[in-house]
Amino acid sequence: MLNYVWLALIVVGILTATGRDMYDTWANTYGNDIPWHLSTFEIENAIDAGQGTVDLTLSREEVRKHFPLMKDDPPEVVCRAEIHMHDASHGSILLRIPANSPAVFSDIASAQGNDKTVVGTMARRGGEWLILLEPVRFVFMKKITTAAFEAATLAVQIAIGLIGIMALWLGVMRVAEASGLIVHLARLVRPLTVRLFPDVPPDHPAIAAILMNVSANMLGLGNAATPFGLKAMEELNRVNHRPGTASNAMCTFLAMNTSCITLIPATAVAVRAASGSADPAVIIGTTFLASTAATLSGVTAAKLLQRLPMFRMARSET
After folding, report:
1. Any bridge partners for residue 124, and if so which?
2. What is the value of pTM for the model shown?
3. 3-class DSSP state of 178
4. Which helix (H) or strand (E) holds 133?
5. The pLDDT value given to residue 184
C-alpha cells in the first residue's frame, strides 16, 4: 500500500510541476526573448577603455516590463557585468545578481546552472544596446529531476555505508546460531518466554527464531531482524490452532518486534555517521528509554486486549 502512496505523490508532483511550467511558458514569467534596453554610455565607455567589467543599471521600468507578474514594486537593480566583445556591435555578457534583486533573477540564474550569475548576448541597435538573456523554461521539472537524482545519490551513499555494519552483525548472528549460543540463550530466558508465550512449547523452533529477531532488534539491525521475524511468524503459525488467524502469541510477538528494546541502534547510528553527523552515537540513551517504554506498552496492551471477550469471539468465528 505504501508503494502506491509514494507513486501517487510522485505523479502529483510531476503533474504539478508540469502545470506550473506550462503556465510560466504561457505567461512568460521569466521574460524570455524580451531584450533589455540599456544606455550606450556605460557600455561604450567600458569598451573604449578596454575594460571587461562594468556596472549596468536595470531601471524599474525595464524590470517591470520583463516581469509583469511581479507583485511588489521592483527596485532598481545594479549588476556587475562582464563583457566579451565578438566585434564592434556584438558580444556576450555575464551579469552578477546583487543581493537586493527580485527573486525571479535568482530563479533564472539557478535555471541556467549558477545561483549568482545569468548569461546572455548583447548587440548594438541604433543608439542603444540590447541584451538578450538565455531563455529559461521547464524550471520546476528541472528542480524535480535534480532533486530525484540527489535523493537517489544520497540513498546509494547511505546504503553503501550500511553494508559493512550489516555484514558484521549478520555474521555475528550466523556464528551465534551455528555455535549453539542461541540454544543456551533460549534456556536462559525460558522463564520469560514461558510467560510471554504460554501457548508455545519452550523448546519449539519458534522460540529460537523469536530470540534471533529480538537480538537483532536490540542491536538496532532492522534489516537483519526481518528474516528472523518472518521465520518466527511461520513457526508460530505451526502451533496455532487456527492457522492463518493471528494467535495470542503472534500478536504478542508482533508488539515486541514493532517496539523492541534497542540497546545499540546500530543502523540509526550508521545512517547518522554516513550523513555526516558530528556525534552519531548521541541517540543511544534516548533510543533505549523510548524503545523500552514502547515495548512495555505494546506487550501490556497485547496481553490485556487478548483477555477481552470481543477479541476471543472474533477469533473463534474466523
Report:
1. 129
2. 0.53
3. helix
4. strand 128-133
5. 74
Residue tagged 512449547 (cell numbers)? 201
Kindly report the length of the chain.
318
- Give dist(CA 217, CA 256) in Å, integer: 10
Q: Write down the pLDDT at residue 316.
A: 43
Per-residue confidence (pLDDT) for residue 317, from 0 to 100: 43
Helix (H, G, I), strand (E, B) or coil at 118: strand
Cell of 259: 517496539
Crossing angle (nearest 10°) for helices 248-258 and 222-238: 180
| C-alpha to C-alpha distances, 104 to 63, 131, 132, 133, 136, nearest whole angstrom | 10, 17, 16, 13, 11
Rounded to an integer, what distance in angstroms lies between the CA atom of residue 278 and that of residue 273? 8
Other Cβ atoms closer than 10 A to 230: 12
- Residue 40 and residue 37: Cα distance in Å, rounded? 9
State the DSSP string of 36-56: EEE-HHHHHHHHHTT-SEEEE
The confidence score (pLDDT) of residue 60 equals 80
d(CA 36, CA 39): 10
Which pLDDT value is given to residue 313?
43
**Cα torsion 199, 202, 206, 212: sign:** positive
CA atoms within 13 A on the CB side of 223: 12
Contact 55, 79 (CB under 8 A): yes
Helices 205-218 and 181-188: angle between axes, nearest 10 degrees: 90
Strands 128-133, 36-38: pairing is antiparallel
At residue 203, what is the residue type?
D
Average pLDDT per run of 10 along the chain, which is 318 residues long? 79 88 86 77 62 75 78 77 79 82 82 81 79 85 85 79 67 75 72 83 81 78 74 86 83 87 78 80 87 90 85 50
Cell of 138: 521547464
Distance CA 66, CA 32 (A): 8
Query: What's the pLDDT at 318?
Result: 40
Give residue 50's pLDDT.
Answer: 56
